[in-house]
TrEMBL record:
<dbReference type="GO" id="GO:0004497">
    <property type="term" value="F:monooxygenase activity"/>
</dbReference>
<keyword id="KW-0408">Iron</keyword>
<dbReference type="GO" id="GO:0005506">
    <property type="term" value="F:iron ion binding"/>
</dbReference>
<protein>
    <recommendedName>
        <fullName>Cytochrome P450</fullName>
    </recommendedName>
</protein>
<dbReference type="GO" id="GO:0016705">
    <property type="term" value="F:oxidoreductase activity, acting on paired donors, with incorporation or reduction of molecular oxygen"/>
</dbReference>
<comment type="similarity">
    <text>Belongs to the cytochrome P450 family.</text>
</comment>
<dbReference type="InterPro" id="IPR051996">
    <property type="entry name" value="Cytochrome_P450_78A"/>
</dbReference>
<dbReference type="InterPro" id="IPR001128">
    <property type="entry name" value="Cyt_P450"/>
</dbReference>
<dbReference type="GO" id="GO:0020037">
    <property type="term" value="F:heme binding"/>
</dbReference>
<keyword id="KW-0560">Oxidoreductase</keyword>
<dbReference type="InterPro" id="IPR036396">
    <property type="entry name" value="Cyt_P450_sf"/>
</dbReference>
<keyword id="KW-0479">Metal-binding</keyword>
<keyword id="KW-0503">Monooxygenase</keyword>
<keyword id="KW-0349">Heme</keyword>
<dbReference type="Pfam" id="PF00067">
    <property type="entry name" value="p450"/>
</dbReference>
Length: 206
């Protein structure tokens, strides 16, 4: 039903029209039950119901976000309360990820002119990560499938992305270690990595 590399929502909409199930259509993706609606009112009821709020964590989220990511957080009152209308969050979340994580955790700031190449690489890493976390992957519903092949290329792309992320993080940690060794103390402007590197024993960052 879902074509390889196609847009899942278009394939589902086409199937709903074919089977005259525009209001409500139910089927299973492996062991995961799925309910699809092309009717705005019914879709609204589903989206505002706590019974459909929690999302099963994806394979890519486990690999790239260490099984902890805000998109897959359990449902609660905080996430259900919002104003009328729609808000496009993709570009805002990506920008927030760059500014907040790189600044507060790594103490790394990028100048769009001076650090153009490094910034382009970082943006590419973030965009690829977001795409992999949001991509449809049959292995999330049929886990045994990953033992034979990677139908959506998710595993291969995650394996290619992780070393690039590790290289970036390692370079930042090396900069912090060199700076800390030179000053021999944690400054008042220390970031999260500085604090972790200053710990001793089991708490020290490896």
């Amino acid at each position: 039903m879902l074509s390889h590399g196609g847009l899942a929502h278009r394939s589902l909409a086409s199937a709903a029209w074919t089977h005259k199930a525009k209001q409500l259509m139910a089927f299973s993706l492996g062991s995961t039950p799925v309910v699809v609606s092309s009717d705005p009112q019914i879709a609204k009821e589903i989206l505002t119901s706590p019974h459909f709020a929690d999302r099963p964590i994806k394979q890519s989220a486990k690999s790239l976000m260490f099984s902890r990511t805000i998109e897959f957080a359990p449902n609660g009152t905080y996430w259900r309360l919002s104003q009328n209308g729609t808000v496009s969050l993709r570009k805002h979340l990506q920008l927030a990820a760059l500014n907040n994580i790189m600044g507060s955790v790594f103490g790394k700031r990028y100048n769009i002119i001076v650090n153009r190449k490094d910034l382009a690489e970082l943006q590419d890493l973030v965009q690829e990560g977001f795409h992999l976390l949001g991509a449809f992957n049959w292995s999330n519903y049929l886990p045994w499938l990953s033992f034979f092949y990677d139908p959506s290329g998710i595993v291969g792309r995650c394996e290619a992305l992780v070393p690039r992320v590790q290289k970036l993080v390692k370079s930042i940690i090396d900069e912090h270690m060199h700076r800390t060794a030179a000053s021999k103390m944690v400054s008042d402007n220390a970031d999260f990595v500085d604090v972790l590197l200053s710990h001793d024993g089991e708490e020290k960052l490896g």
